[in-house]
Amino acid sequence: MNMYNVAVVGALGAVGREMTSILAERKFPVRTMKLLDIEAYEGQESLFNGTSVRVQTARAGAFTDVDIALFSAGAEASLSLAPIAVKEGAIVIDNSSAWRMDPQIPLVIPEVNPQALKTHKGLIANPNCSTIQMLVALKPIHDRYTIKRIVVSTYQAVSGSGQKAIEELHEQVKKYLDGEKISSRVYPHQIAFNALPHIDVFLENGYTKEEMKMVHETHKMLDPAIKVSATTVRIPVIRSHSEAINIETEKPFEVSEVVELLQQAPGVQVIDDVRSNAYPLALNAAGKDEVFVGRIRRDSSVDNGLNLWVVSDNLRKGAALNAVQIAETLVQQQLVHIPAN
Ligand SMILES: NC(=O)c1ccc[n+]([C@@H]2O[C@H](COP(=O)([O-])OP(=O)(O)OC[C@H]3O[C@@H](n4cnc5c(N)ncnc54)[C@H](OP(=O)(O)O)[C@@H]3O)[C@@H](O)[C@H]2O)c1
Protein backbone atom coordinates (compact mmCIF):
# COMPACT_ATOMS: atom_id res chain seq x y z
CA MET A 1 0.00 0.00 0.00
CA ASN A 2 1.25 3.52 -0.82
CA MET A 3 1.93 5.74 2.19
CA TYR A 4 1.66 9.53 2.13
CA ASN A 5 3.32 12.50 3.77
CA VAL A 6 0.40 14.46 5.20
CA ALA A 7 0.19 18.00 6.62
CA VAL A 8 -2.63 19.64 8.57
CA VAL A 9 -2.64 23.45 8.37
CA GLY A 10 -4.43 25.13 11.28
CA ALA A 11 -3.64 21.96 13.22
CA LEU A 12 -4.43 23.45 16.65
CA GLY A 13 -7.88 24.71 15.64
CA ALA A 14 -11.25 23.03 16.21
CA VAL A 15 -11.32 21.39 12.75
CA GLY A 16 -7.54 20.80 12.56
CA ARG A 17 -7.56 18.73 15.77
CA GLU A 18 -10.49 16.72 14.46
CA MET A 19 -8.68 16.11 11.16
CA THR A 20 -5.64 14.68 12.93
CA SER A 21 -7.71 12.34 15.06
CA ILE A 22 -9.91 11.19 12.13
CA LEU A 23 -6.82 10.43 9.99
CA ALA A 24 -5.56 8.18 12.80
CA GLU A 25 -8.98 6.67 13.56
CA ARG A 26 -9.61 5.71 9.92
CA LYS A 27 -6.03 4.45 9.50
CA PHE A 28 -5.29 6.75 6.60
CA PRO A 29 -1.93 5.59 5.15
CA VAL A 30 0.20 8.33 6.75
CA ARG A 31 3.99 8.01 6.33
CA THR A 32 4.78 11.32 8.06
CA MET A 33 2.48 13.84 9.75
CA LYS A 34 3.29 17.54 9.76
CA LEU A 35 1.27 19.85 12.03
CA LEU A 36 1.33 23.47 10.82
CA ASP A 37 -0.16 26.55 12.47
CA ILE A 38 0.73 30.21 13.10
CA GLU A 39 4.26 31.15 14.20
CA ALA A 40 3.11 31.89 17.77
CA TYR A 41 2.37 28.17 18.26
CA GLU A 42 5.71 26.94 16.83
CA GLY A 43 7.22 24.30 19.10
CA GLN A 44 3.98 23.35 20.88
CA GLU A 45 3.33 19.62 20.96
CA SER A 46 0.16 17.93 19.72
CA LEU A 47 -0.75 14.26 19.46
CA PHE A 48 -1.09 12.25 16.28
CA ASN A 49 -1.97 8.57 16.70
CA GLY A 50 -0.59 8.53 20.24
CA THR A 51 2.71 10.17 19.27
CA SER A 52 3.66 13.73 20.16
CA VAL A 53 4.35 15.91 17.11
CA ARG A 54 6.02 19.35 17.22
CA VAL A 55 3.93 22.10 15.64
CA GLN A 56 5.73 24.05 12.90
CA THR A 57 4.94 27.36 11.23
CA ALA A 58 2.79 27.26 8.09
CA ARG A 59 4.84 29.15 5.52
CA ALA A 60 6.35 28.85 2.04
CA GLY A 61 8.84 26.00 1.97
CA ALA A 62 6.86 23.88 4.46
CA PHE A 63 5.20 21.76 1.74
CA THR A 64 8.13 20.54 -0.38
CA ASP A 65 7.99 17.09 1.28
CA VAL A 66 4.17 16.91 1.60
CA ASP A 67 1.86 14.79 -0.61
CA ILE A 68 -1.51 15.84 0.86
CA ALA A 69 -2.19 19.02 2.86
CA LEU A 70 -5.50 19.43 4.70
CA PHE A 71 -6.06 23.16 5.18
CA SER A 72 -8.24 24.44 8.00
CA ALA A 73 -6.80 27.81 8.96
CA GLY A 74 -9.34 30.25 7.53
CA ALA A 75 -9.85 31.81 4.09
CA GLU A 76 -7.00 34.31 4.36
CA ALA A 77 -4.42 31.60 5.06
CA SER A 78 -5.83 29.44 2.25
CA LEU A 79 -5.79 32.27 -0.28
CA SER A 80 -2.13 32.99 0.35
CA LEU A 81 -0.69 29.57 1.23
CA ALA A 82 -2.71 26.97 -0.71
CA PRO A 83 -1.33 27.94 -4.17
CA ILE A 84 2.20 27.89 -2.70
CA ALA A 85 1.59 24.42 -1.24
CA VAL A 86 0.38 23.15 -4.64
CA LYS A 87 3.44 24.69 -6.34
CA GLU A 88 5.63 22.87 -3.82
CA GLY A 89 3.96 19.59 -4.86
CA ALA A 90 1.19 19.02 -2.29
CA ILE A 91 -2.43 18.29 -3.12
CA VAL A 92 -4.48 20.70 -1.01
CA ILE A 93 -7.91 19.88 0.40
CA ASP A 94 -9.16 23.23 1.66
CA ASN A 95 -11.83 23.65 4.32
CA SER A 96 -12.21 27.41 4.01
CA SER A 97 -14.55 29.34 1.73
CA ALA A 98 -11.59 30.77 -0.26
CA TRP A 99 -11.76 28.55 -3.36
CA ARG A 100 -15.18 26.90 -3.25
CA MET A 101 -16.83 28.86 -6.03
CA ASP A 102 -13.83 28.97 -8.38
CA PRO A 103 -15.09 27.11 -11.50
CA GLN A 104 -11.64 25.50 -11.97
CA ILE A 105 -11.67 23.97 -8.49
CA PRO A 106 -13.70 20.88 -7.61
CA LEU A 107 -16.04 21.29 -4.63
CA VAL A 108 -16.70 17.79 -3.38
CA ILE A 109 -18.85 15.71 -1.06
CA PRO A 110 -17.82 12.09 -1.71
CA GLU A 111 -21.43 10.82 -1.36
CA VAL A 112 -22.70 13.48 -3.79
CA ASN A 113 -20.21 14.30 -6.58
CA PRO A 114 -16.99 12.24 -6.28
CA GLN A 115 -16.61 12.38 -10.09
CA ALA A 116 -15.63 16.06 -9.77
CA LEU A 117 -12.28 14.96 -8.28
CA LYS A 118 -11.13 13.56 -11.64
CA THR A 119 -10.40 17.06 -12.97
CA HIS A 120 -8.50 18.39 -9.96
CA LYS A 121 -5.37 20.41 -10.59
CA GLY A 122 -3.94 20.13 -7.09
CA LEU A 123 -6.48 22.18 -5.14
CA ILE A 124 -9.82 20.74 -3.98
CA ALA A 125 -12.41 22.60 -1.91
CA ASN A 126 -14.41 21.17 0.97
CA PRO A 127 -17.95 22.62 1.11
CA ASN A 128 -19.54 24.60 3.93
CA CYS A 129 -20.69 22.48 6.89
CA SER A 130 -24.38 23.35 6.56
CA THR A 131 -24.37 22.52 2.82
CA ILE A 132 -22.63 19.16 3.32
CA GLN A 133 -25.22 17.63 5.65
CA MET A 134 -28.12 19.02 3.62
CA LEU A 135 -26.86 17.58 0.34
CA VAL A 136 -25.89 14.17 1.76
CA ALA A 137 -29.55 13.83 2.81
CA LEU A 138 -31.08 15.34 -0.34
CA LYS A 139 -28.92 13.71 -3.05
CA PRO A 140 -30.83 10.36 -3.11
CA ILE A 141 -34.16 12.20 -3.09
CA HIS A 142 -33.07 14.46 -5.96
CA ASP A 143 -31.82 11.48 -8.00
CA ARG A 144 -35.22 9.75 -7.72
CA TYR A 145 -37.78 12.58 -7.62
CA THR A 146 -35.93 15.74 -8.87
CA ILE A 147 -35.99 18.49 -6.26
CA LYS A 148 -37.34 21.83 -7.59
CA ARG A 149 -37.07 23.98 -4.48
CA ILE A 150 -35.45 23.88 -1.04
CA VAL A 151 -36.36 26.08 1.93
CA VAL A 152 -33.95 25.50 4.80
CA SER A 153 -33.55 26.96 8.30
CA THR A 154 -30.44 26.04 10.23
CA TYR A 155 -29.72 25.81 13.95
CA GLN A 156 -25.93 25.93 14.01
CA ALA A 157 -23.50 25.08 16.80
CA VAL A 158 -20.90 27.55 18.03
CA SER A 159 -18.00 25.19 17.15
CA GLY A 160 -18.80 26.20 13.56
CA SER A 161 -17.07 29.50 14.42
CA GLY A 162 -13.96 27.78 15.79
CA GLN A 163 -12.31 27.13 19.12
CA LYS A 164 -12.66 30.73 20.40
CA ALA A 165 -16.45 30.60 19.99
CA ILE A 166 -16.68 27.41 22.07
CA GLU A 167 -14.73 29.20 24.81
CA GLU A 168 -17.01 32.27 24.51
CA LEU A 169 -20.15 30.18 25.07
CA HIS A 170 -18.61 28.41 28.09
CA GLU A 171 -17.57 31.76 29.61
CA GLN A 172 -20.94 33.41 28.98
CA VAL A 173 -22.92 30.51 30.49
CA LYS A 174 -20.75 30.62 33.61
CA LYS A 175 -21.03 34.43 33.92
CA TYR A 176 -24.80 34.31 33.35
CA LEU A 177 -25.25 31.74 36.09
CA ASP A 178 -22.92 33.69 38.42
CA GLY A 179 -24.87 36.91 37.69
CA GLU A 180 -21.79 38.60 36.19
CA LYS A 181 -21.67 41.06 33.27
CA ILE A 182 -21.40 39.30 29.90
CA SER A 183 -19.22 40.52 27.05
CA SER A 184 -19.02 39.16 23.48
CA ARG A 185 -15.91 38.94 21.28
CA VAL A 186 -16.73 36.36 18.60
CA TYR A 187 -20.42 37.21 18.04
CA PRO A 188 -22.12 40.63 17.82
CA HIS A 189 -24.52 39.63 20.64
CA GLN A 190 -24.60 37.30 23.63
CA ILE A 191 -24.86 33.72 22.35
CA ALA A 192 -25.60 32.05 25.72
CA PHE A 193 -29.38 31.45 26.05
CA ASN A 194 -29.94 33.21 22.73
CA ALA A 195 -30.46 32.55 18.97
CA LEU A 196 -28.70 34.79 16.44
CA PRO A 197 -30.15 34.98 12.89
CA HIS A 198 -26.74 36.03 11.64
CA ILE A 199 -23.91 33.75 10.44
CA ASP A 200 -21.02 35.33 8.53
CA VAL A 201 -21.44 38.82 7.05
CA PHE A 202 -24.59 40.43 5.62
CA LEU A 203 -24.66 40.93 1.84
CA GLU A 204 -26.36 43.56 -0.36
CA ASN A 205 -29.36 41.24 -0.95
CA GLY A 206 -30.16 41.06 2.79
CA TYR A 207 -29.00 37.47 3.13
CA THR A 208 -25.87 36.45 5.01
CA LYS A 209 -22.85 34.96 3.26
CA GLU A 210 -23.54 31.65 5.05
CA GLU A 211 -27.06 31.59 3.55
CA MET A 212 -25.76 32.31 0.07
CA LYS A 213 -23.07 29.62 0.45
CA MET A 214 -25.91 27.09 0.81
CA VAL A 215 -27.48 28.40 -2.41
CA HIS A 216 -24.31 28.58 -4.54
CA GLU A 217 -22.75 25.35 -3.29
CA THR A 218 -25.99 23.41 -3.91
CA HIS A 219 -25.98 24.73 -7.48
CA LYS A 220 -22.32 23.80 -8.00
CA MET A 221 -22.52 20.27 -6.57
CA LEU A 222 -26.10 19.05 -7.01
CA ASP A 223 -28.06 20.97 -9.64
CA PRO A 224 -28.09 24.64 -10.73
CA ALA A 225 -31.83 24.37 -11.47
CA ILE A 226 -32.84 23.93 -7.82
CA LYS A 227 -34.26 27.06 -6.16
CA VAL A 228 -32.82 27.46 -2.65
CA SER A 229 -33.84 29.81 0.16
CA ALA A 230 -31.87 29.65 3.43
CA THR A 231 -32.04 31.23 6.88
CA THR A 232 -29.01 30.40 9.03
CA VAL A 233 -29.16 30.77 12.81
CA ARG A 234 -26.49 30.36 15.48
CA ILE A 235 -27.69 28.68 18.68
CA PRO A 236 -25.94 27.92 21.98
CA VAL A 237 -25.09 24.31 21.16
CA ILE A 238 -21.42 23.26 21.23
CA ARG A 239 -21.43 20.71 18.46
CA SER A 240 -23.68 19.50 15.58
CA HIS A 241 -25.79 21.60 13.25
CA SER A 242 -29.53 20.90 12.92
CA GLU A 243 -31.56 21.84 9.84
CA ALA A 244 -35.30 22.03 9.16
CA ILE A 245 -35.51 21.34 5.43
CA ASN A 246 -38.61 21.73 3.26
CA ILE A 247 -38.46 20.51 -0.34
CA GLU A 248 -40.71 20.32 -3.37
CA THR A 249 -40.08 17.66 -6.00
CA GLU A 250 -41.06 17.33 -9.68
CA LYS A 251 -42.23 13.74 -9.33
CA PRO A 252 -44.73 12.46 -6.79
CA PHE A 253 -43.49 10.22 -3.96
CA GLU A 254 -44.74 8.10 -1.10
CA VAL A 255 -43.24 9.10 2.25
CA SER A 256 -42.50 5.42 2.96
CA GLU A 257 -40.45 5.24 -0.28
CA VAL A 258 -38.43 8.30 0.78
CA VAL A 259 -37.75 6.71 4.17
CA GLU A 260 -36.54 3.53 2.45
CA LEU A 261 -34.36 5.53 0.07
CA LEU A 262 -32.76 7.40 2.96
CA GLN A 263 -32.25 4.18 4.93
CA GLN A 264 -30.11 2.90 2.05
CA ALA A 265 -28.30 6.18 1.31
CA PRO A 266 -24.54 6.29 1.97
CA GLY A 267 -23.59 8.32 5.04
CA VAL A 268 -27.22 8.66 6.20
CA GLN A 269 -28.90 7.19 9.27
CA VAL A 270 -32.66 7.53 9.67
CA ILE A 271 -33.94 8.06 13.23
CA ASP A 272 -37.66 8.55 12.94
CA ASP A 273 -39.98 7.00 15.49
CA VAL A 274 -41.97 9.82 17.01
CA ARG A 275 -44.06 7.42 19.15
CA SER A 276 -40.93 6.81 21.21
CA ASN A 277 -39.66 10.41 20.85
CA ALA A 278 -36.88 9.21 18.53
CA TYR A 279 -35.52 11.86 16.17
CA PRO A 280 -32.03 13.22 15.47
CA LEU A 281 -30.52 15.33 18.27
CA ALA A 282 -27.43 17.54 18.22
CA LEU A 283 -26.12 16.02 21.46
CA ASN A 284 -26.40 12.48 20.10
CA ALA A 285 -24.86 13.35 16.72
CA ALA A 286 -21.74 14.92 18.31
CA GLY A 287 -18.68 12.77 17.68
CA LYS A 288 -20.49 10.61 15.09
CA ASP A 289 -19.89 10.38 11.35
CA GLU A 290 -23.40 10.04 9.96
CA VAL A 291 -25.92 12.58 8.72
CA PHE A 292 -29.00 11.80 10.84
CA VAL A 293 -32.44 12.32 9.30
CA GLY A 294 -35.83 12.26 11.02
CA ARG A 295 -39.25 13.94 11.27
CA ILE A 296 -39.80 12.82 7.66
CA ARG A 297 -43.32 13.94 6.76
CA ARG A 298 -45.39 15.21 3.87
CA ASP A 299 -45.93 18.95 3.47
CA SER A 300 -49.54 19.00 2.37
CA SER A 301 -49.51 22.76 1.72
CA VAL A 302 -47.88 22.24 -1.72
CA ASP A 303 -47.76 19.50 -4.40
CA ASN A 304 -44.98 16.96 -3.74
CA GLY A 305 -43.79 18.70 -0.56
CA LEU A 306 -41.67 17.06 2.13
CA ASN A 307 -40.25 18.12 5.50
CA LEU A 308 -37.09 16.70 7.07
CA TRP A 309 -35.00 17.32 10.20
CA VAL A 310 -31.30 16.77 9.45
CA VAL A 311 -28.54 16.76 12.08
CA SER A 312 -24.81 16.14 11.78
CA ASP A 313 -21.56 16.89 13.60
CA ASN A 314 -20.25 20.06 11.91
CA LEU A 315 -16.65 19.36 12.94
CA ARG A 316 -16.76 15.82 11.51
CA LYS A 317 -18.95 15.35 8.40
CA GLY A 318 -19.30 19.12 8.11
CA ALA A 319 -15.54 19.63 7.93
CA ALA A 320 -12.77 17.22 8.97
CA LEU A 321 -14.38 13.90 8.03
CA ASN A 322 -15.48 15.12 4.60
CA ALA A 323 -11.92 16.34 3.93
CA VAL A 324 -10.43 12.99 4.99
CA GLN A 325 -13.01 11.14 2.84
CA ILE A 326 -11.90 13.29 -0.12
CA ALA A 327 -8.29 12.24 0.58
CA GLU A 328 -9.40 8.58 0.81
CA THR A 329 -11.24 8.88 -2.52
CA LEU A 330 -8.14 10.41 -4.15
CA VAL A 331 -6.10 7.43 -2.90
CA GLN A 332 -8.72 4.86 -4.04
CA GLN A 333 -9.02 6.45 -7.48
CA GLN A 334 -5.23 6.88 -7.81
CA LEU A 335 -5.58 10.64 -8.11
CA VAL A 336 -2.82 11.62 -5.68
CA HIS A 337 -0.79 13.50 -8.26
CA ILE A 338 -0.88 17.00 -9.72
CA PRO A 339 -1.40 17.09 -13.50
CA ALA A 340 1.45 18.74 -15.45
CA ASN A 341 -0.59 21.82 -16.50
N1 LIG B 1 -15.70 24.77 12.60
C1 LIG B 1 -16.44 24.24 11.64
O1 LIG B 1 -17.49 23.59 11.88
C2 LIG B 1 -16.06 24.40 10.21
C3 LIG B 1 -16.78 23.73 9.25
C4 LIG B 1 -16.43 23.87 7.92
C5 LIG B 1 -15.37 24.67 7.58
N2 LIG B 1 -14.68 25.33 8.55
C6 LIG B 1 -13.56 26.18 8.13
O2 LIG B 1 -12.34 25.63 8.61
C7 LIG B 1 -11.43 26.68 8.91
C8 LIG B 1 -10.94 26.54 10.34
O3 LIG B 1 -12.03 26.55 11.22
P1 LIG B 1 -11.90 26.21 12.76
O4 LIG B 1 -13.30 26.17 13.23
O5 LIG B 1 -11.02 25.05 13.01
O6 LIG B 1 -11.19 27.56 13.31
P2 LIG B 1 -10.21 27.74 14.55
O7 LIG B 1 -10.62 26.88 15.69
O8 LIG B 1 -10.11 29.21 14.77
O9 LIG B 1 -8.81 27.17 14.04
C9 LIG B 1 -8.02 27.76 13.02
C10 LIG B 1 -6.54 27.51 13.35
O10 LIG B 1 -5.72 28.02 12.30
C11 LIG B 1 -4.78 28.93 12.86
N3 LIG B 1 -4.38 29.90 11.83
C12 LIG B 1 -4.85 31.14 11.60
N4 LIG B 1 -4.18 31.71 10.56
C13 LIG B 1 -3.25 30.81 10.16
C14 LIG B 1 -2.24 30.82 9.16
N5 LIG B 1 -2.04 31.86 8.37
N6 LIG B 1 -1.47 29.71 9.02
C15 LIG B 1 -1.64 28.65 9.82
N7 LIG B 1 -2.58 28.58 10.79
C16 LIG B 1 -3.37 29.65 10.98
C17 LIG B 1 -5.50 29.52 14.03
O11 LIG B 1 -4.65 30.20 14.91
P3 LIG B 1 -5.35 31.29 15.94
O12 LIG B 1 -6.18 30.49 16.87
O13 LIG B 1 -4.25 31.99 16.62
O14 LIG B 1 -6.15 32.20 15.08
C18 LIG B 1 -6.11 28.26 14.63
O15 LIG B 1 -5.18 27.48 15.34
C19 LIG B 1 -12.18 27.98 8.60
O16 LIG B 1 -11.87 28.40 7.29
C20 LIG B 1 -13.62 27.57 8.71
O17 LIG B 1 -14.46 28.41 7.93
C21 LIG B 1 -14.98 25.21 9.85
Automatic annotation (TrEMBL):
EC number assigned by the record: 1.2.1.11
SUPFAM superfamilies on file: Glyceraldehyde-3-phosphate dehydrogenase-like, C-terminal domain, NAD(P)-binding Rossmann-fold domains
Key words of the record: Amino-acid biosynthesis, Diaminopimelate biosynthesis, Lysine biosynthesis, Methionine biosynthesis, NADP, Oxidoreductase, Threonine biosynthesis
Top-level division of the source organism's lineage: Bacteria
GO molecular function: aspartate-semialdehyde dehydrogenase activity; NAD binding; NADP binding; protein dimerization activity
Signal peptide: none
Catalytic activity of the protein: L-aspartate 4-semialdehyde + phosphate + NADP(+) = 4-phospho-L-aspartate + NADPH + H(+)
Database matches in CDD domains: ASADH_C_bac_euk_like, VcASADH2_like_N
Domain Semialdehyde dehydrogenase NAD-binding: 5-120
Keyword NADP: yes
Main enzyme class: oxidoreductase
Subunit structure: Homodimer.
Family under the similarity heading: Belongs to the aspartate-semialdehyde dehydrogenase family.
HAMAP family xref list: ASADH
Free-text function comment from the UniProt entry: Catalyzes the NADPH-dependent formation of L-aspartate-semialdehyde (L-ASA) by the reductive dephosphorylation of L-aspartyl-4-phosphate.
Protein name: Aspartate-semialdehyde dehydrogenase
Species whose genome carries this gene: Vecturithrix granuli
This protein's encoding gene: asd
